[in-house]
Amino acid sequence: MKKISFWIKGLLLFVVFYFLFLRPIPYYIERPGSAEDLDPMIEVEGEYSSEPGKFMMTTVEILQATPFTYLFQFLPYNDVVSETELFGDIEDYEEYNTLQSYYMESSIHSAIVAAFDAAGLPYNLEYKGVYVMSVTENSNFAGILQMGDTITEVDDLKFENTEEFMDYIKSLEVGKTVSIKYERDGTEYISEGDLIELEETGESGIGISLVDQSSVETDPEVVIHSGEIGGPSAGLMYSLQVYSMVTNTNLRAGHIIAGTGTISEDGTIGPIGGIDKKVVAADEEGATIFFAPDEEIDSDLKEEYPDYKSNYEIAVEAAEDIDTDMEIVPVKTFNDAIKYLEQLSPVSSRFDPEQKVDALAA
C-alpha cells in the first residue's frame, strides 16, 4: 500500500512539474540577450580584425513561456508577448525564423554596400530574383511555393529587376498557365500553375508577396558569418566593422563599442525593437559606448501616440535606470557614427604613465 502511495505521489509531482515548468503556452518572453564581438564574425580577404577594442552587435533573447516563466514579466527588462504580437500573420516559428534569416541576409547586403559607399570603394550588385515572403490561399502555387523560395525565371525568362518581373506577369491574362523556376535551399525546381486575379488591383498575378533578392560582390571580398542570429538590427554595427577593416582605420581606438539599428544602402539608420534590453546586454558585456538610432518621429504618429519615444530616448532611459556609465550616442546616418568615432581618443592615451607613477609614490 505504501509503495502504491509513493508512486501516486511521484506521478502527481511529475504532472505538476510538467504543467508548471515544461508545458509551453502561447506566449513568449523577451529579455536581454547577448552582445557579440564582431571580430570572429567578419572577414575581409580571409583576414579577421585584431585591432584593440571591440565592435559588438546586441540581441534580444526570445523564449517560449511556460506557466512558471510567464511570471518573468515581473522581472526588470523581461516582457511577455503573445504569439499574435510576435508572429503577426506568420503561421509558425519555422516561418518566423525563415523571415528573420531573410532580414539578416538583407541587412548584411545593405551593411556592406553602405560601408563600401562610405569608403569610396567599388562593388557590384547582382539581381538574383524574387524572394517569396508569403503565398495567398487562393494562389494556384499554394502548397508549391514557400516563404524563402527565390523565383529566378518565369516562362524561361530572366529579369533585371523585380519591376520587370511584375510587368511581365501583369501583361498576361488571368488563367494563363506559367512555368516558374525557383530555388529552395540551393536546389532548383520548376512548377506550372495558372495566374489568378489579384483582389487588391484586379490584375493578374501569381498570388505572392515579394521582395528583391540580390547579392553584392566586392573587392576586397567581405564575408559575414552571422550564424543562427536573425533579424535586421545588426546592420549598423556590421557596417562599422566592415568600413574599419576595408579602410584600415582603427575606428574603435581600443574602446568597447556596442549598438543596434537597421541600415539602408544609402546609410540611413532605422529603429529596432527591444533597444532597452540591448542596452542592458551591452552594459553586462562591458561596453562603454552604445549607438542608438535617433529616428525622426512623424508628427501624425506623435499626435496619435503622444507617449511614443525614439530608440535613442528609450536607450537613454534604460541607461539611467541601470545606472551605467556607458555613453548613449544618437545616430541618424552611418556618417554620424563615423564622425563620432573619428574624434575618439585612444583608450591608452587616457593614462599618463608619469602621473600614474606619481600617484603610486604619493
Automatic annotation (TrEMBL):
InterPro entries: Lon_proteolytic (IPR008269), Lon_Prtase (IPR027065), PDZ (IPR001478), PDZ_sf (IPR036034), Ribosomal_Su5_D2-typ_SF (IPR020568), Ribsml_uS5_D2-typ_fold_subgr (IPR014721). It holds the Pfam family Lon_C. It catalyses: Hydrolysis of proteins in presence of ATP. Keywords: Hydrolase, Membrane, Protease, Serine protease, Transmembrane, Transmembrane helix. The chain crosses the membrane at residues 6-22. Its EC number is 3.4.21.53. The active site is at S233, K278. GO terms for biological process: protein catabolic process; proteolysis. Belongs to the peptidase S16 family. This is endopeptidase La. The lineage of its organism: Bacteria, Bacillati, Bacillota, Bacilli, Lactobacillales.
